[in-house]
Amino acid sequence: MIRKVRWGVLGAAHIALKKVIPAMQRGAWCEISAIASRDLAKAQRAARDLDIPKAYGSYDELLADPEIEAVYNPLPNHLHVPWTVRCAEAGKHVLCEKPLSLDVAEARQLLTVRARTGVKIGEAFMVRTHPQWLRTRELVRAGRIGDLRAAMGFFSYFNRDRANIRNVREWGGGGLMDIGCYPINTSRFIFEAEPRRVIALVERDPEMHTDRLASALLDYPSGQAIFTCSTQLVPYQRMQFFGTKGRIEIEIPFNAPPDSPCRIFVDDGSDLFGAGIQTETFPVCDQYTIQGDLFSQAVRGEGEVPVPLEDAIRNMAVIDALFRSAESGNWETP
User: Fold this and answer.
1) 157: closest CA among 133, 182, 132?
2) How far is CA 120 from CA 8, 91, 278, in A?
3) Which of 222, 223, 229, 254 has its CA at 20 to 30 Å from residue 19's CA atom?
4) Phi, psi of 330 (to 5 degrees)
């Protein structure tokens, strides 16, 4: 018999209210028991709209609730580590939104906290649990495209709202932190390795000083990955993986829709017009539901945290190195 994990949510972030909470509520292993906001009325409104039993007017009140076993932390980036530490010290397991921290040094604090408290801490890279990504890695492992040699990614949206947290540099805003982390993470996932060195070009917004356009090259032991991300371009996303005998393209790699099937295209390269492409379609699923259930199973001792601290720190090391490279103009080692 499944014993659901009782979850609390810190803050009323858009991603939590519109995507993650509803998805976790549909999970077999998750029960959203409480939500907290520094504005009690906001928490009460969210609780009412989403049928959450308890609402708190402070994060500390939620952490003091003995019934809460795990916390989802979707706070702004600069609050990820401080409040994840507070959650762990209160004995709560933590699923923290990406990026886990502002830099590697900050993220490493959580290793000590985890060892001291014994709680589970994971980064919410939901893409790593989606069947289309698991299948892509399976195909690459099986040699379907020969030897993997290159990856190519693009991720962009348009947002020049100065009040939006994604555009506040001091809070960890900007493209590399918000969306560049995805092609980094997924290329690491498919290459199953860490880049030996990286190099980047970064253009910053002249007023907000966040990185609004970044392009990067990651040098892996067996190949290379390139990607561009932007917070001020037409919305688009795509990832492709190229081997000696074929290519895999993921149609909607990051914001996989929860209400329609997803597709990947496996191309043997025999025809530039696409005659050699085989399409694999994945049934409707919600990657946030899967993520929540897998983390909850780990809490119950029935699996591992999908994206553990060690992986989150390695991803952050690449981001740190790319920012260093943008300043130095040189290759940098994560």
Assistant:
1) 182
2) 15, 10, 40
3) 229
4) -120, 165
Report d(CA 5, CA 244) in Å as an integer. 45
Structure tokens at 42: 């906001």
Q: Please say whether the beta carbons of 214 and 228 come within 8 A.
A: yes
Q: Tell me how long the chain is.
A: 334
- State the pLDDT at residue 1: 86
pLDDT at 28 over 90: yes
Whole-model pTM above 0.90?
Answer: yes
Residues 6+ apart with CB under 8 A from 86: 59, 60, 63
CA distance 312 to 235: 26
Cβ neighbourhood burial of 57 (10 Å; 0-12, 13-18, 19+): middle
CA distances from 280 to 53, 139, 240, 254, 255 (A): 41, 11, 14, 17, 18
What is d(CA 35, CA 43) in angstroms, rounded to the nearest whole number? 6
Instruction: Report the share of the chain in percent with pLDDT over 90.
Output: 99
The mean per-residue pLDDT over the stretch 95-121 comes to: 97
Looking at the chain, list the stretches that DSSP marks H as alpha helix, in order from N- to C-terminal side: 14-15, 21-25, 40-50, 59-63, 80-89, 104-117, 131-141, 175, 181-191, 287-299, 309-328
Q: How many other CB atoms are there within 10 angstroms of residue 31's CB atom?
A: 18
d(CA 52, CA 172): 30
What phi-psi label fits residue 51: left (phi over 0), alpha (psi between -120 and 50 degrees) or beta? Answer: left
> ∠ CA(81), CA(83), CA(86), 5° rounding?
110
The three-state secondary structure class of 138 is helix
CA 323 to chain centre: 19
The amino acid occupying position 195 is P
d(CA 292, CA 95): 8
